[in-house]
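QA checklist item 7 of 12: single-chain prediction sanity check.
[x] sequence parsed
[x] length recorded as 153
[x] structure emitted
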Amino acid sequence: MASQNASAKIAQLANTARTRLSSSLNAESARKALDAASSSARNAAEAVSQRAQNAPGRFGAISQRIVYQSRVAFEIAKEVARREKLGFPSSAEWDVAKKEALEYARNWQRIRNLRNITKEDAGRAAVIGAEIFGFFLVGEIIGRRSLVGYKLD
């Protein structure tokens, strides 16, 4: 008798879970998912913080500032997500994004033909190239840890 009750309870819980999974995400479930993700990230940040504080050398001296700034940035991003009512995209939004990406890919084929290039296409390509080059330069500066040249000992 007890095993039948337990089996019925398990089946009921499984049906409830199946129903919840089949329904689309609404704002409340998106908020809960965001809160769950933020708590997971906070736990991970705390674990990294504890390991960084125990790290010897120069990194150990600045680790508290790095961890503090990353936590501040995370909390700001979380607050922006809440205020902007951001959630997970619906399947319709994914379909629209996929169509836009395919349209962009088709337009890219047109850009490859240099005989038929327009001023608008050339301008777009120049802006994208400048943006990529800018990110490359910022990456170099970060890698060198200096704005100009390498620090030599």
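[x] summary fact logged: Helices lie at 2-22, 27-53, 58-83, 91-112, 119-144.
[ ] second reviewer sign-off
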